[in-house]
Structure prediction request, 602 residues.
Amino acid sequence: MNRRLGSLFLATGLVFLLAGVFFGVLGGLLYLFPQELRDLLPFTKLRPLHVSSVVFWILFAAIGGLYFYTSGSSKTIRSYTLGHLHYLLLFTAAITIMGCYVAGIFGGREYWEYPPVLAIPIAISFVLLGVHFYRHIKKTKGPWPIYRWMWLSGIVFFILSFTESYLWVLPYFGDHLVRDMAVQWKSYGSLVGSWNMLINGGAFYVMTRLSGDDSLARKPLTFAFFFLGLFNLMFNWGHHIYALPVSSTIRYTAYIVSMTELLILGRIIWTWRSSLSEARKNAALLPYRFLIVADGWIFLNLFMAILMSVPAINLYTHGTHITVAHTMGATIGINTMLLLASATYACIRFYGRFSTAAQKSIMRGLYLSNGSLVVFWVALIGAGLGKAVLEVQSPEMPHAQIMQALQPWFVAFAVSGTGIAVGVALMAVPILRTLLANQKAIPESETLKSKELQHI
Amino acid sequence: MLHRIFGSPHAQAGIYASLFIAFLLFTGFVYVADVPAVPLDGKQDLAIQGKGLWQQHNCSSCHQLYGLGGYLGPDLTNVISEKGAPYAKAIMQGGTGTMPNFKLSETELTALVAFLEHADQTGKASRQHFRIDGFGQIHLKTTNHE
Prediction:
């Protein structure tokens, strides 16, 4: 039953992913023709439609993975109702939110622009996910593998941070801009960290199953890096607000904590050779290919994040498209690739192998989306650097003139953005078809085991 | 050593609990930490109303405050002190080549200007107002907000 729920969440997530890249392409067009499309495609509607679609892709797909991998733990009627209620709440909220954006009904803030009342069903849906997870862990014995800690952290910190992001409705927070923005970005930092935990939990589960070595998820070093990630989720959000006149303790804490990510970067470099040979060994596995690609993006984005967390550098990158490059690299290169690794793994394991045509389409999509993402990423960095240079050299230059000077970069990101969208569609559609065509999951006894997966 | 610290389930739970307590304490600190006092000469209510309008029209999809928001339009943190309230009001009233005319009423325009005045008085956002210390941290050149 949880597999059906997993499938439902994942399929919904994939539809949101397709919607997200579609709105992204329209957004790119608006950057090229801002005057011509000003009234036809208002950016006030387009941006939240794009961002929220992608956020819902992440949430639905990550939750789908959790339902898939905790399957068999709660097959009671009550749990069936709970899981479906969970889906219904989140889905209804998501659709209503998209409707509000199309109709131009706002009232929230950046990233959660919908009227605040719609946050209630989202929060309740995560409490229900927490109940499902609690029921699952109640039935398990022995020390927890790392992915279970990650799922727990994802659920707990999502509920806490999401609630915190609505403290602005209280006058003490909302009536003072600086306190409001500080708390807003504190909550957003942890919120992103929380869904990263949900995604990483699923990815770690897949890695463990693919390798057939459960000890991977129980090594002390793995736990050391998990706690380092958790530490950063809790305390490194302040690099978003270095310019905001908040307490120095907040700004120095963010700076120092962000620098601990150097340990993660060092580890990636240190284990590069062994990761590479491992990748060659498992290259035939479809989910593993997504994991390899995500690894590359983790390296690039982490390197960038560390640089951007140095206030002296942040002073120049902040408020430019370099921030967007970082977000896109993380959302498409890391999150989406990890979620697609989990999605392909779940499809193969629970619904059988992909057809040759579907596999070909997914591989083409993987190459196209990642090749385009490299161009997209570089174009955004170029636009960001260009803006920073122009603002330093000519502080009085009007914004419109700066935007005009950056036009070649915008052309590059609009074209490569279309490449990403086509690539994503080539990957998402066959997975979606597999999920929709297999209404009935194959029994547990017949699902593909790790060794069989090796031959896919 | 690593095994002793991170290897046992009890140690893992202990580290998790310690981090969580530290997180709660830091959260409390962020909530009560001092923020700059802004004299608004009786315009507080109007500024709050303006903030609501800023959200209702989703201004942050294109504009930034302290560099946070969309990048299609300019940062508006200090638009009042740099360009003046009449300039800001005129732009909001008629729109520009890239910004639609939101058809705002006079009351709404006044409230939005009051909100931007409030934002302006909280601090400075553009880079030329900051200096970098030897540790790589940034500080306001004119007003020391530490």
